[in-house]
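debug: dumping io for the single-chain case to check the tokenizer round-trip. Nothing else runs in this session.
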Amino acid sequence: MAPRLSLISPDFTRLWFGQAVSSVGDMVFSTTLMLWVATVLAKDESWAPAAVSGVLVAGGIAVLVVGPIAGVFVDRWDKRRTMLGTEVLRGGLVALLAVVSFLPADALPAGVWLTLVYGTVLLLHAAARFFAPARFTIIADLVTGDADRARAAGITQATSQTALIIGPPLAAPLFFTLGVQWAMLFNALSYLVSYVAISSVRVAPAGKAPADGSGAGKAAGHRSGVLREFVAGLRFFGRSRFLVALLVFAVIGQFGVGALNTLNIFFTTENLGMSAKLFGYVGMAIGVGGIVGALCAGRVVQWIGARRTTWVSLLVSGALLVAYSRQTGFVGGIILLVLFTIPLTVLNTAMAPLLLSAASAEYRGRVVAVFQPMTQLAAMVAAALSGWLAGTLLRDFDGSVAGLRFGPIDTIIAVAGLCILLSGLYARGALPDPETSEDGGPTGGPAGEEGAGEPAAPAEQTAAPAAAVRSPAPPRRGSTE
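debug: decoded output
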């Protein structure tokens, strides 16, 4: 028998390949921007840290502002054309910035350079808000069956984590030996590869309008206003007890991971006694855990079901984060960090068969567009809150319980673990294991209707949701965000 050269299906394989190349390009680009701003544009300036953080803030603003409304247009537009259009736009933006960067650094004031960088990042993130829901919907059409959809989500997670391991080490040599321009051109070329891959994917034409006539107006080209459709999407989401439950425990869990992302550099150097020069091993540990979790996730979902995998993963990862907060050695801390990332990645894969199974195809884009900004906002609030607590209220905290000593950083991380445990307990009650649902996904009528989420025949699912609880990794501008 000839070896199988495709992942799940030939069309999914082509889509995956394009995104794999683009994800590496994204990581090279984002790392290069950080290095460029820190070592060239703001070199030896007291405001250099603020300038670097501005890159992250620009991306966050795009997610919060553009994300919710983007879902309305994605639900209107042809999904494949939307993806192709965003790749052209993003590739062109990066190429344009690369051309401008051939100018000497002193040719323009630092403020102008930073404005160009922030503006490019904001537009790239804004375009990604259209790309992600469109890709989300296409994968749901390309991949059928719970097992294959879980595998698709696992492959996507593993690819993202692999890009996290490959991208930064590749970016630094490109930047310091060839210059910022070539790293940018590498990313622009990656968008071209993604464009070619997407253009080769065969997507079935959109189905007919619903029998109740709800989509008839859209099919005929008579659309209601954008604001009205946006509000309709919010109502659709709010009326689904299942979707609201998913969002609630995702936000609670994000508070836990957001605190770890913010304080981990201080925990590893102060509590684990690790040199700052070794901090790269932390990112490697997270990447390894993410790959292992992604490769195992499909089988776990197939074994115990998506719902049970979700709340079990939350409970296990929460307990492991609490255990991580008690570590005092480098080796033990790295091992616990790898173990913590595994169930967290499994969780994001398990969310794939759940997130949109309560939503009809007409609202898929808006469902994703609600999740992404809300989890992004939760991460930003968690980062700000944990940083404020560590630097002010708990700065001189020193206590002990049953002979265990607690300082400010490990206490906050322990509470973060308890937040994830709390979200797991909530998910356990909100996502009961239905006896009549084979795949463990939400069932019943479309989300937003009475009875949505009650046991019945399983509804349609998808394979690549917005991350419910993001893995603890450096913020990045990915085309698959």
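debug: round-trip ok. The mean pLDDT is 75.
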